[in-house]
């Protein structure tokens, strides 16, 4: 599929896809006979995972390290798992912070409702 099709299906811009390729987050995408990028379904699955890492706050540098380890093969599975476990703990901590922040907002909203 073309970069435009991959962008549409992944929800990322073509610019972001080129950037991800340039910094090593995605491997060199295959090319068609005319030399244009030719994304595969596997590329979209990987992009979906990268998007989840990004939206949960993983730094780009950590994402690049994870991608590098992935390319190195199965012998890096333990290190990749540890990276994801550490990230999961950061996500859980952020969720706990947001939950507390939400309680404060709810409290304030309830106060304003009582004044009305």
From TrEMBL:
Q: Per the database entry, which stretches of residues form a coiled coil?
A: 81-108
Keywords attached to this entry: Coiled coil, DNA-binding, Transcription, Transcription regulation
Where in this chain does the record put each HTH merR-type domain?
A: 1-69
Key word rRNA-binding present: no
- Highest taxon, organism lineage: Bacteria
GO MF term set: DNA binding; DNA-binding transcription factor activity
Name by which UniProt lists this protein:
DNA-binding transcriptional MerR regulator
């Amino acid at each position: 599929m073309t970069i435009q099709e991959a962008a549409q299906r992944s929800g990322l811009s073509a610019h972001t896809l080129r950037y991800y390729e340039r910094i090593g987050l995605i491997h060199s995408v295959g090319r068609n006979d005319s030399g244009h990028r030719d994304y595969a379904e596997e590329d979209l699955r990987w992009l979906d995972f990268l998007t989840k890492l990004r939206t949960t706050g993983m730094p780009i540098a950590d994402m690049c390290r994870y991608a590098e380890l992935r390319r190195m093969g199965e012998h890096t599975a333990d290190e990749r798992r540890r990276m994801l476990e550490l990230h999961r703990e950061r996500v859980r901590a952020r969720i706990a912070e947001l939950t507390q922040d939400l309680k404060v907002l709810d409290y304030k909203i309830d106060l304003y409702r009582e004044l009305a």
